[in-house]
Amino acid sequence: MRYRIWRVVVFLLALFPPLLWLYMGLTQQLGPDPGKVLVDNLGQGALVLLLLTLSMTPLRRLSAWGGWIAVRRQLGLWCFTYVLLHVAGYLTFILGLRFDRLLDDLSERPYIIVGALAFVGLWLLALTSNHYSVRRLGARWRQLHKLVYVILVLGLLHMLWVVRSDIGEWVFYAVSGAALLMLRIPAVAAWLSARPGKVKSFRKALTAKSAGL
Ligand code: HEM
Asked: Is 70 exceeded by the pLDDT of residue 92?
């Protein structure tokens, strides 16, 4: 309830890009191959949402504002939704719904197998992202949700395979992902968690000093 407004903001921000791309596609503003552009945009959007989801816990540790965690689940589910649309776009615009060609296409584009593995992982996380699963799985829930790092690595590998020569954007995503992974190292995570406390005690000390205590 407390962070409802932020959930609404995240919802609208995540909903906007696919609607814009749809509009641009329908009004012929996506170039000669709109289907391919749509698939690429949704793929990149999914990766950005995955990185944003992973940055919520470090931000919470850094700032102690509870809103980060309140929107984390929603960001993860949006990442899943973008991937669903990305896959639907692939099947429709690239494969042309000719499912008999799927096996041939997989041998022509082996990077799809890597993407599909990440997709399976995302299904597992999406299906267990509800309160019931958190309660039911207990400590195993945390273990299962560490899968998100494997998904990130698979997503990055999948993208690298597609972009091959023009790797500028890929490097940006890979460096951001590596930084987020480093923030999960227990010693670094503990240091981050200690920071808001330190800021608070520093403020307390300052107030006490100015009050002559
Ligand atoms: C069954 C699962 C998947 C399939 C079939 C699939 C299919 C594709 C295809 C065909 C392309 C290349 C489109 C083209 O330029 O010709 C692509 C690119 C891409 N995909 Fe996937 N993908 C899958 C899963 C994923 C996942 C899980 C992610 C991210 C978490 C992802 C992120 C990307 C990215 C970032 C690109 C590159 C976009 C660009 O070049 O700008 N994909 N995918």
From this structure: yes
| From 54, 158, 163, 173, mutation site for ligand 1 pocket: most ligand atoms within 8 A of C-beta | 158
Ligand 1 atom closest to the Cα of residue 173 is: 35
- State the residue for tokens 């590596």: 178
- Measured between alpha carbons, how far is 158 from 42 in angstroms, rounded to an integer? 14
At 194 the pLDDT is: 83
CA distance 168 to 6: 32
Pocket around ligand 1 at a 6 A CB cut-off: 36, 39-40, 43-44, 46-47, 50, 83, 86-87, 90, 94, 112, 115-116, 118-119, 122, 155, 158-159, 162-163
Contacts of 77 (CB under 8 A, 6+ apart): 126, 129
Gyration radius of the chain's alpha carbons: 21
Q: Pick the residue with more confidence: 112 or 201?
A: 112
C-beta separation of 46 from 155 below 8 A: yes
Structure tokens at 28: 């012929």
Question: What pLDDT shows up at residue 209?
Answer: 47
